[in-house]
Structure formats: C-alpha cells, structure tokens
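Example 3.2
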Amino acid sequence: MLKNPLNLLLLSSLLLNTQCSKNAEETIDELMKPYSDKNPGAAVMVIKEGEILFQKGYGLANLETGEKVTAETNFRLASISKQFTAMAILILEKKELLSVDDKIRDIFPAFPEYGKEITIKNLLRHTSGLIDYESLIPDTATIQVTDSDVLKMMNDADSLYFEPGTKFQYSNTAYAVLAMIVEKLSGNSFPEFLEENIFSKLNMKNTVAFVKGKNQIPNRSFGYNKVDDEFEFSDQSLTSAVLGDGGIYTSLEDMFKWDQALYTDVLISDRKMKEAFKRGQLNNGETIDYGFGWRRDYFEGLDRIYHPGSTCGFRNIYQRYPAQKLSVLVLTNRREPDVADIANEISKLYLN
C-alpha cells in the first residue's frame, strides 16, 4: 500500500522543525554561557504567533542563597518600564481625563513658565527639553530620589535644554513627570494605577512597581556588577526609587501576557496602540525613531519595535517584530554587558 504523501510531508516538516528548534536551543545556550552556573543569571523568551517557542532561565537570581533563575523570576525592567508608563497615560486618555496634546501646565498650573509649551506628547517622545534630573542630584545625597522629587526639581529649575518639539533627547525626567501626571489625574498612586488598570487586567500576578516598605517583589532577582573577576552586590542606586522611568519588576511569565495584550484592544483601542508605536515627529516635520515608550528601527530589513533597559544591577532588552509576530526578551541581573547583540542573534535564528 502506498503511504499517504500528505502524511509524509507532515512528518518531514515535523522532523525539520524539531531539528531547527534543537539547533536554536543549542545556539542560545552557547550565547548565554556567561550567565550560567553560579553567575548572576538571565531569562530568555522567544514568542512567535502567540506561541512560546523558547523559554529558559540561566544562572542565579540570588548569589547569596543560590536561588536559580526561572520563568517566574522577577527582574527590574529599568527603562523597559517606560512602555507601561506610556500605557498608563493612554488609559487616562481613554477615560477622557487628558489628551496627549494637553500642556503640562494644564495639569500642574504652578509649573514654571519655562515649561508652558511642553505637551504630554513631548514627554512621551523625549522632545520636552527638560533637564536631566540625574544631573541635579547633589554629590552628597544619600536618600533615594522619587518621582515627586523629580517634579520638585523641575519646579525649582529655570530653563530647558531646547525648545519643546525641536529636538529628541532621551529623558528619564519626562517619564518621572508622566508618573506624577498619572497620580494627579487618577487620584491613585502610580503603583496602584498600574496594578488596577494593567497588571490585574492582564493577570500579571507577579508584576509590581516596587516601593520599599509598601509592596513586595515575589521571586525577586537581585542585581550585581562584575569588578575584576568578582561579582559585587549592586541592586539599588540613588535613582532606583523613581518609578516612571524604570521601577517595574516582572518575569518572563508575565511579559508573555503583556506581549500578547499588545496585539489586542483589551487595554486601549487598536488606533491608539498604533499611535503608541508610531515614529514621532519634531516641529519641523523631521521623523524620530521613538513613539510612546517604544524605540523604532529596522533589523535584517524588518521593522522592529523595541526598548532596552539598564540600571546599576540589571541589563535587559525587549524586541518585537510586528509583521512576523515575533518577540524576543532577554532579562539579566547584572550591570554589564549590553545584551542587544545577544537578542539580535536570537532574533536571527527565528527570523531566518
């Protein structure tokens, strides 16, 4: 009896996909060797068309206890947090509590005159010209700065780097101010607003905007920095308590839920989601490679939406290829090195 050609084709395809998957896993394991064994670790996820194709933890979340990294381990996202801050603003717009075209003085009437032309859209796209708050922290400071402290610093300042909308300059200050806008208009703390309007809605049970003494980080990883041949504890800095620009902790498990929600209108409309991803424009019409909490570029000739995140003890990157419905996430609990090259190599494995 002749075998069914269709069955033979399906079997051949299955064997090929199994071999490709095995080769990809071996390649990723090789890339992640510096994060393995007893080193500060990493968590890697690849998502394609709603399916997790690869998910694995490497190394340790806590060098002192020997706790290993898993898919449930929570890492500090650093600047990847900005996409959640931007989403909070867009949810407020959906609730008709603001427009992204509103000016900052519409919300904070006492804000200095120098900021009268700054819009929420300027803040979202890093075109506000606000002074970097990090440069205003005294060398003698020992107490962590908060988002409200950043707003106060701006109230005490008297100038901008440039006129709003005329240049792009990455601004942690802008996202701290955005967090304070969320608090002012919602009547809730920033962590409470995120929990109620994003994390709970998406069943991101272990994700939190961390405030010491007020909430806890389940399955927490701690940050480290390599000095010579030794890893030193490096989990918090003077700016680690600022939430809007980088204070969210989450895991691979919860980031999968976030990633998939971005393809839907469960949080905001499809039209607004496209606006968040869209490249911005300066006043003169020049295009910038930044949307609302998202960077934009091309990789391997394909449109890519992404954001890195780095802080004193964590280094991360989150890449999305919308046309291919492919996402790559690399989270690590060590300050260096940059993980963009690792994510690029992983992306190539699945794009090709």
